Amino acid sequence: MMTTKISLITGGASGIGLAFAEQLASRGHNLILVDKSADGLGRAGVDIRQRYRVQVDTLTADLADASDVEMVEQKISDIDINVLVNNAGFCTAGMFTEAPLKGQLDLIAVHCIAPMRFCKAAIPRMMEHHYGRIINVCSISAFCRFPRTVGYSATKGYLWIMSECLQVELVGSGVKVQALCPGWVRTNINAALPKDTFDASKIPGFLWTEPRDLVEMSLRALERSNRVLFIPRLRDKIVVLAFGSRIGLKLLAIYRRIRFAIARR
Ligand SMILES: NC(=O)c1ccc[n+]([C@@H]2O[C@H](COP(=O)([O-])OP(=O)(O)OC[C@H]3O[C@@H](n4cnc5c(N)ncnc54)[C@H](OP(=O)(O)O)[C@@H]3O)[C@@H](O)[C@H]2O)c1
Hints:
Blueprint: E1 6-10, H1 15-26, E2 30-35, H2 38-52, E3 56-60, H3 66-78, E4 83-86, H4 101-128, E5 132-137, H5 150-169, E6 175-180, E7 184-185, E8 208-209, H6 211-224, E9 229-230, H7 234-244, H8 246-264
Helix pairs in contact: 1-6, 3-4, 4-5, 7-8
The structure holds NADP nicotinamide-adenine-dinucleotide phosphate (NAP).
NADP nicotinamide-adenine-dinucleotide phosphate binds at residues 11, 13-17, 35-37, 40, 61-64, 87-90, 110, 137, 139, 182, 184-185, 187-189.
């Protein structure tokens, strides 16, 4: 007997999470959307129910709050989740020494602790049914070394390595894990950041990806391959090579030294 799949998506009220919600609903999945904003969840829920005729439950939860994380974790333990998308995330502004500590600690809570707990809660039932899909939304920041991204890059790196190691333990279990590492995606994630911290207009247009395109590539790759690390676009792989590889970083350091020397003349 065919049973309807259930997908749980964190940060499902907007951006990449909403695009996952729409595409999984279009494949007939019932959804549980988790997000901080009850209003955003309400709007997403009504829209998706109307358009795709699937069941959409919503859970308002701040994943930086331990008791909210426990509430979601309990929900995951109680039912069979077939697809788990750990997507909720945010960026902080400013240099590490100047940025408020709370934001840095919240990055660890939202990008590391919540996904780790949700994986731990979902996997036993997935293994029982010999089927499960987990998408951990990381970022090319896990590889790149930019200023003002200490907490963001480090927590996305954690999520990537966690995904890789998890998959090693899950070989043959029917559970697949993907560490989705996008470059720049057109969402509101940076909208609240001051312009001197992040100016979206400085990123060339060709480097941007639409959330819908990203999600299509992610879901296709998850079914077609067993690769954990998924950097969807060639252009993003080039950015990783330039700003993340040893040789790229050495060349950048040389370039910066030359610019500095010229400026001092
Ligand atoms: N956009 C990019 O260029 C890009 C690139 C690489 C990776 N990513 C990653 O993609 C994921 C989705 O981001 P997005 O670009 O789609 O941004 P987005 O449109 O801002 O979506 C992120 C969602 O996560 C929610 N969220 C943030 N903090 C939360 C918390 N403490 N508890 C519960 N929900 C929370 C946000 O709620 P509120 O809006 O209410 O805060 C929002 O609905 C993030 O993990 C991000 O790091 C994004």
